[in-house]
Design goal:
By secondary structure, the protein is of the alpha+beta class. The chain contains 12 helices and 11 strands. The two termini are about 70 Å apart. The structure holds phenylalanine.
Length: about 375
């Protein structure tokens, strides 16, 4: 039988208590019958709604109808009752009762959910190791944008428009740039060298920086190529920097990276932004420089005993001309720069035969470097 609020005629303490007990009993029974969220809503509305809810009715029927001398006693009773009913209504929940308590039981002695934290990617790891070697020599880290302008990627690095050296670094160009002057057109940077100029615009000499980052070239992916790869650039500028400083710094870095027994070897090369330029070779750390692995030829060094690791050279005075106003007068300062491909070094370091493993995202491969 559903509960309805009775009119009171007897306002004695005993009668009030009886009426309140009946009301609480009804509310308790209804709270226990709540099974769903919809039940819960109608239960709450029935008891608590401002307009015609049971509490409001009690207020109207029991309080307002009370004779003067009983008002105080009735007021206190009704207040107590309201508190109790509010507690009951607030404590009710869908699926109330013992069953739901059992289903909500949490065994706090069980181990928690383990979230694997993952591992550093082999290329990031190699890159950090190389950067750390230079940080110990006092170099700081600089970075720059991957989407770069023609000016920073080519022109200010002494690749004039239409110069054939641009062909060696073909890349992906951002569409719809034809209406802009050539130097403002956007492309995916082909090397980290644009950050040389960007940093020299911001910081006066002397500077010593290393620049890790991703670069892009128009190379279809195969075992030794990828249209996206990683480089680390280095730049040191001060008064009286010589090729001897370049050789000493890189010889030290190679020994720190590949072991103290490696030998270094510089061969003349060409880059538009360095003069003179060189390629640095180290004795093959797979075969130790012999060109052989047991009876077999050593593949990574193509049996030569030497592995090319980077391009380098003395900063071309034409490059300094672009940042002359920030303290880089080529008559007063000199510097050296170098740039190496991290992916190839990681490949050699881990003895892999295919660069593509690094980019396929196969966790079974990647987790080995954790
Ligand atoms: N930026 C050159 C490249 O990507 C490498 C390099 C950097 C050469 C600095 C000399 C000095 O091929």
């Amino acid at each position: 039988m559903t509960y309805t609020v009775p009119k009171l005629t007897d306002y004695s303490a005993a009668a009030l208590e009886k009426a309140a007990d009946e009301c609480i009993a009804a509310c308790t029974t209804e709270a226990e019958a709540v099974r769903s969220d919809a039940d819960l809503k109608s239960f709450r509305d029935r008891w608590m709604a401002r307009k015609n809810g049971i509490l409001t009715q009690i207020n109207d029927l029991w309080l307002k109808g009370a004779p003067k001398e009983a008002k105080r006693e009735a007021g206190m009773r009704v207040n107590e009752l309201k508190t109790r009913i509010t507690e009951l209504v607030e404590g009710a929940h869908s699926g109330a009762g013992a069953d739901s308590l059992a289903s909500e039981f949490v065994d706090i002695s069980l181990p928690g959910i383990r979230r694997p934290i993952g591992a550093e990617h082999a290329i990031v790891k190699t890159s950090n190791e190389i950067v750390a070697v230079f940080q110990k020599l006092g170099y700081s880290v600089a970075e720059g944008p991957v989407v770069e302008t023609d000016y920073y990627n080519f022109e200010s690095l002494n690749f004039p428009p239409n110069h054939p050296a641009r062909d060696t670094q073909d890349t992906l160009f951002i569409a719809g740039q034809q209406s802009k002057p050539q130097r403002e057109r956007l492309l995916l940077r082909t090397h980290t060298s644009p950050v040389q100029i960007r940093t020299m615009e911001q910081m006066r000499p002397p500077i010593r920086i290393v620049i890790p980052g991703t670069v892009h070239r128009n190379d279809p992916p195969d075992a030794s190529h990828s249209p996206m790869f990683h480089q680390i650039e280095g730049l040191a500028v001060d008064t009286n920097i010589t090729f001897g400083d370049l050789k000493g710094t890189l010889d030290h870095a190679m020994k720190a990276l590949f072991g103290s027994s490696v030998k270094t070897h510089f061969r003349p090369s060409f880059f538009p932004f360095t003069e003179p330029s060189a390629e640095l070779y180290v004795t093959c750390f797979i075969c130790g420089g012999s060109g052989k692995r047991g009876a077999d030829p050593c593949r990574p060094c193509k049996q030569t005993g030497w592995i090319e690791v980077l391009g380098c050279g003395m900063v071309d005075p034409n490059v300094f001309e672009f940042v002359k106003d920030n303290g880089y007068d080529p008559k007063k300062v000199s510097g050296f720069a170098f740039g190496m491909g991290v992916d190839r070094l990681a490949l050699l370091k881990y003895g892999l035969d295919d660069l593509q493993y690094f980019f396929q995202g196969d966790v079974r491969f990647l987790e080995q470097f954790g």
